[in-house]
Design a protein that fits this description.
This protein is α/β, with parallel strands linked by helices. It contains 31 helices and 19 strands.
């Protein structure tokens, strides 16, 4: 143990030194709380703070309960520790810091379980060998990048494209991978990185759907590229040892050259058989785990470096027609002859043939060569096996990218100046021919290089698939889950199966473009992730790699897309369609991953910018949207686990056109905030779940308040931001107040309406909510509007919104206008028709005349409302008499609802007559209407809330489904386009 961690035991306390590392302190029942702090002497480097810590019985419990225990300080006196103000649960310690990073922490054992309570250093679980920058990133990237394309295709590419376009090709592809490496370095150094490599980065930046879709495509690319490397190794082996072939070789007669020579190429069946055998052998090596791969990797890499050295030495010592016909040595004339491109049709073996079926151009060569620069993700694919991902991935990846790009650029010049174009075309193993001293070195180098790259692919691809499965996004991938530190054996078998399937194809030139598309798709995802994170610049975006900019990431993503379309637009469409199909499948079947992806940050920034652009000015009627505040607090009881009346959510959906708009579902929890805060969080979560279940777009809010009135007053003042504040308050009509004799409801109900009027909020009160239809109950009939007062067009707009729903689309609208004099009827009807026509609204207009509101109702007509009217009169008289008796008894003025009132009995009678007339009219014309909308009368200023409830009860009497609407001081419809 280091000196920093030295623990000095004492009989009654433990003393440990504070240094770079800390050990957790376990409480002892028999110890006393002792906290000793001595200041560190600035002049002495050896002076250390010493802390003696013990714990009194139940100390932590007391700290949580808010009590402040006494501590013994250095001088033995008793005084209150200043640290107690923060509570022991909040003190910064190593366990808390580890929990912030997501590391699993083993809970310290309790001494009450019979243990001695000694302080032991907790060692993390051994998750296997961890690799450094060289063996973990640089070597895998180098082996993947420097592979089969360089040895058996690169000289042919130089001959086909010429030196000039070959340099452009290498620069173009190298720039794409370099910019991707920069983006990868930035994201990889922005926090801890677990297994999965690019999938982990893309998924956490762009969300689980994008991450899984691109991650699975990248997995397929890795698996397919493994077959590419295996085929290259087998083809090289069969060319070096023709006698090893089991079937007859294919002989191709070369055309278009000075001396026609027969060119042999291995049989397809030989490639398939040997390829499957090699894949199985590599699979066994991968099964050995990281430890075996770490041992085998140098054995593959060292001969490759020797082979490269022999190639460059052979180029330097080559002379005219030495070591074979067609070599000129390094010649300026040859350099000039090979500068320009010479694209020719070829056969399947790549041999120029005027009758060949394969046409080559720069775009096709991009598709053939690009796999030679892929492999930059080989290190990040093994991120779970790295000691320090934030250091190793940037340094190793960029070093491998720059090294191989420089090697390719140099090789273009050397190959272009070394041999004639015919030799570049026909000698597929020119690197072996020119090697010094023996071509066999190149055959060994090619085979080991390609096998090493295949080994890295078969190592990285299963770990990538296991990382996707471990995130538990797609249940179908659960078979590939592995425990931390274990080898992904099932994923390895699946990868090997895909690899062998592609080996059966047996054609490098067909496999290469497919692999390229998957790689480019992943590279584009990495660049877009870095672009989004860098552009948004969230506070959490603090990468250690500083040499990046969002413009470079955008350029890298653009290059990836351009290269995809340059290679093949059909392959591009297929790969994008596959990624989109996986994205759609993940969206439907996948589980949500709360990763805080960049899209959430983008939505946040967009919302803020949109909110600022809206400002706080008045919204124009053309841009007006209903933002209903659904008051979920029921006038009565709801079933258990139902936080909101089900039909309120249905009605909220009816207020949106094609689902556009936002609803705020608010409820009030009675009580003290400090005591009910946790209950409010639970209730808010339940309400959110419920409105999601009801498929109603909206947010849930729970307010804790002493009572409903104060809670609603707080809601109506503070809810919303800027112009996104709710503009309509929707609530249920309290039909149960008289039936259950809830005498506190009138004052609360009237107070809510008055609060809405003061806050300038529109009000919609739903009567008959239990009978409100859902989306599957189609309605027929009419929607009747009793348009009594000007409300800015809100009632008209609500009726139009109802018609947009399937349940009401078969209904027709009728507008009833109330005219006091007969002479006004025709003129009013014409004006309303013209107004509705200009508003583009289809409705029938009906004018109802009432000569005088003061005329008492005719009881001889046996109207159903007359009996209710008489009962309301009796109740009002009884309530007024009780108020007067109380006032006389107490010697005060008339009081109701805690405030003085002024009651004019004639005015009360007039209000009752008014509501009676209106109710009679509604029953006469709209008894069979689907929905009736009527204006909400404001509560009279000095009348008791009880009287207002009597007016409202009389208004809604015998009307089964009624919307009582009050607009606000703004127009919500406009005549203009």
């Amino acid at each position: 143990m280091d000196n920093d961690e030295e623990i000095e035991a004492a009989p009654n306390h433990r003393e440990f030194r504070i240094g770079r590392k800390y050990s957790p302190v376990v409480a002892q029942d028999s110890d006393r709380a002792v906290v000793e702090m001595s200041s560190l002497d600035p002049g002495s480097s050896s002076s250390l703070n010493k802390v003696k810590v013990g714990m009194q019985p139940n100390l932590i419990t007391n700290a949580r309960e808010g009590s402040l225990p006494t501590h013994v300080v250095a001088n033995g006196g008793h005084e209150e520790s200043k640290l107690e103000l923060f509570g022991f649960d909040s003190l910064v310690n190593i366990l808390g810091l580890k929990s912030m990073t997501g590391e699993p922490i083993q809970a310290p054992s309790s001494p009450r379980e019979g243990e001695d309570g000694s302080i032991l250093e907790q060692h993390p679980k051994n998750t296997g060998i961890k690799l450094g920058t060289m063996m973990g990133v640089f070597v895998p990237c180098l082996q993947n990048i420097l592979g089969i394309i360089y040895y058996i295709r690169f000289s042919w590419i130089v001959g086909m494209a010429g030196i000039g376009e070959s340099l452009l090709l290498v620069t173009f592809c190298g720039l794409c991978t370099f910019l991707t490496s920069v983006s990868l370095s930035a994201i990889a150094t922005n926090g801890a990185m677990k297994g999965g490599g690019p999938y982990y980065l893309i998924g956490r930046a762009l969300g689980p759907e994008v991450g899984v879709s691109i991650g699975l495509c990248f997995f397929l690319g890795n698996a397919v590229s493994g077959s590419l490397y295996v085929l290259g190794a087998v083809e090289t082996f069969l060319n070096a040892v023709p006698s090893a072939g089991l079937f007859r070789e294919t002989i191709t007669k070369v055309n278009g050259t000075a001396v026609a020579e027969p060119i042999t190429s291995p049989s397809l069946h030989d490639l398939q058989i040997y390829g499957i055998i090699v894949t199985i052998i590599l699979c066994f090596i991968v099964f050995g785990g990281v430890k075996m791969i770490n041992r085998v990797a140098p054995a593959f890499l060292v001969p490759v470096l020797f082979s490269l050295a022999s190639i460059f030495v052979g180029i330097l010592v080559a002379k005219k027609d030495h070591p074979a016909t067609g070599f000129t040595g390094l010649s300026i004339k040859t350099f000039r002859d090979n500068w320009s491109p010479e694209y020719q049709p070829t056969n399947n073996a790549g041999i120029p043939d005027p009758d060949g079926k394969i046409d080559w151009n720069f775009n096709a060569l991009v598709g053939l060569f690009f796999p030679a620069v892929t492999g930059i993700m080989a290190g990040s694919n093994r991120s779970a096996s790295l000691k320090d991902t934030q250091r190793s991935i940037p340094i190793g990846t960029l070093a491998a990218t720059l090294t191989t790009t420089g090697l390719y650029m140099l090789s273009v010049f050397l190959f272009g100046a070394l041999a004639t174009r015919e030799k570049l075309f026909t000698d597929r193993l020119l690197t072996a021919t020119v090697a010094w001293p023996l071509p066999a070195l190149i055959y060994v180098g090619i085979i080991l290089s390609t096998l090493g790259a295949a080994l890295q692919s078969l190592t990285g691809a299963p770990r990538l698939l296991a990382a996707i499965a471990n995130d538990d996004i797609l249940p179908v991938l659960n078979y590939f889950k592995v425990a931390e530190g274990d080898e992904p054996h099932i994923a390895t078998l699946f990868t090997a199966f895909i690899c062998m399937g592609c080996v059966v194809i047996g054609n490098l030139d067909l496999i290469s473009p497919t692999t390229t598309m998957f790689y480019l798709l992943c590279y584009a995802g990495v660049n877009l992730s870095c672009f989004l994170l860098d552009l948004l610049d969230a506070p959490s975006w603090r990468p250690r790699w500083k040499f990046h900019h969002w413009s470079l990431s955008l350029l890298g993503a653009s290059l990836c897309i351009v290269i995809m379309f340059l290679i093949s637009w059909s392959f591009t469409v297929v790969s994008l369609a596959l990624a989109s199909l996986i994205y759609y499948y993940v969206s439907l079947k996948g589980k949500a991953g709360d990763w805080g992806d960049g899209f959430k940050s983008a939505y946040f920034q967009l919302a803020l910018r949109s909110l600022r652009s809206l400002g706080a000015s008045q919204v124009h009627p053309k841009n007006w949207y209903p933002i209903p505040l659904i008051f979920c607090r029921p006038w009565g009881k709801l079933p258990e686990n139902v936080p909101c009346h089900p039909k309120l959510a249905d009605f909220a959906n009816c207020m949106k056109k094609k689902g556009r708009g936002m609803s705020i579902f608010a409820s009030i929890l009675d009580g003290d905030y400090h005591e009910c805060a946790e209950d409010a969080k639970i209730a808010c979560k339940q309400l959110s779940t419920y409105i999601e279940y009801k498929r109603c777009e909206g947010v849930a809010e729970i307010i804790v308040a002493p009572n409903m009135s104060e809670g609603f007053r707080g809601i109506v003042q503070t809810m919303g931001l800027g112009n996104l504040k709710p503009n309509i308050v929707v609530m249920r009509y309290p039909e149960i107040w008289r039936r259950e004799n809830l005498i506190e409801i009138p004052a609360t109900f009237v107070g809510i309406i008055n609060d809405c009027i003061v806050a300038n909020k529109a009000v919609v009160i739903v009567k008959g909510l239990d009978e409100w239809p859902n989306e599957y109950q189609r309605q027929y009939g009419t929607i009747d509007l009793y348009w009594i007062v000007r409300d800015g067009g809100l009632m008209l707009l609500l009726s139009q919104l109802l018609l947009t729903k399937e349940s009401f689309e078969s209904c027709k609208i009728r507008v009833f206008c109330i005219a006091e004099e007969d002479s006004d009827a025709e003129e009013l009807k014409a004006d309303v028709k013209k107004f509705l026509y200009d508003l583009r609204m289809q409705a029938e207009v009906i004018v109802v005349s009432m000569k005088s509101w003061d005329t008492q109702p005719d009881a001889s007509k046996q109207d159903e409302s007359v009996e209710a009217f008489a009962a309301a009169q009796r109740r009002n008289a009884s309530y007024l008499k009780d108020m007067k008796d109380k006032a006389e008894k107490n010697g005060t003025e008339l009081m109701a609802d805690g405030k003085p009132v002024v009651v004019h009995e004639q005015q009360v009678e007039k209000f009752l007559y008014t509501t009676l007339k209106l109710n009679s009219t509604i029953l006469r014309y709209s008894r069979m209407a689907t929905v009736v909308l009527v204006s909400l009368p404001p509560p009279p200023v000095n009348h008791p809330a009880y009287f207002y409830m009597e007016y409202m009860d009389l208004l809604v009497e015998n009307v089964p489904r009624l919307l009582i609407v009050r607009g606000y001081r703004r127009d919500v419809v406009t005549l203009f386009t």
